[in-house]
Amino acid sequence: EKDIPVANFIIHEIHCSRNIQVCRYCGESIPKSEMKNHVESEHVQVICKCRMKMENSLLKDHEASACPLRPALCQYCDIPLTFDKLQDHEVYCGARTETCGGCGRNVMVKDLKEHPQVCG
């Protein structure tokens, strides 16, 4: 959007009414010749692998940050999981024990990062 001189406003208004259309889904101004492609590429309904239905334009963000089936790595063993399985796995995985090379005690994996501060 920009300011239009009064002298050109009527010509501009005629041009816009002939060539521009407002998308009924998102309110964006789209050239009429591109409206069909815009609706089909941005607003068509798709189904994610998690079975959630949404507009195609939202799918990429959903898959990256909200989908329960998005890829995730365990912070303790780096095994690839889906996000919906991560918490249960990390509770189990973090509770495993490993022997400390310094003091010889068995330390839970979830405590290994802090253990050197109390080791001895």
UniProtKB/TrEMBL annotation:
<dbReference type="Pfam" id="PF21366">
    <property type="entry name" value="TRAFD1-XIAF1_ZnF"/>
</dbReference>
<dbReference type="GO" id="GO:0045824">
    <property type="term" value="P:negative regulation of innate immune response"/>
</dbReference>
<keyword id="KW-0007">Acetylation</keyword>
<keyword id="KW-0597">Phosphoprotein</keyword>
<keyword id="KW-0479">Metal-binding</keyword>
<dbReference type="InterPro" id="IPR049439">
    <property type="entry name" value="TRAFD1-XIAF1_Znf"/>
</dbReference>
<dbReference type="InterPro" id="IPR051986">
    <property type="entry name" value="Innate_Immune_Apopt_Reg"/>
</dbReference>
<dbReference type="InterPro" id="IPR013083">
    <property type="entry name" value="Znf_RING/FYVE/PHD"/>
</dbReference>
<keyword id="KW-0863">Zinc-finger</keyword>
<comment type="function">
    <text>Negative feedback regulator that controls excessive innate immune responses. Regulates both Toll-like receptor 4 (TLR4) and DDX58/RIG1-like helicases (RLH) pathways. May inhibit the LTR pathway by direct interaction with TRAF6 and attenuation of NF-kappa-B activation. May negatively regulate the RLH pathway downstream from MAVS and upstream of NF-kappa-B and IRF3.</text>
</comment>
<keyword id="KW-0862">Zinc</keyword>
<feature type="domain" description="TRAFD1/XAF1 zinc finger">
    <location>
        <begin position="78"/>
        <end position="120"/>
    </location>
</feature>
<protein>
    <recommendedName>
        <fullName>TRAF-type zinc finger domain-containing protein 1</fullName>
    </recommendedName>
</protein>
<dbReference type="GO" id="GO:0008270">
    <property type="term" value="F:zinc ion binding"/>
</dbReference>
<dbReference type="GO" id="GO:0005739">
    <property type="term" value="C:mitochondrion"/>
</dbReference>
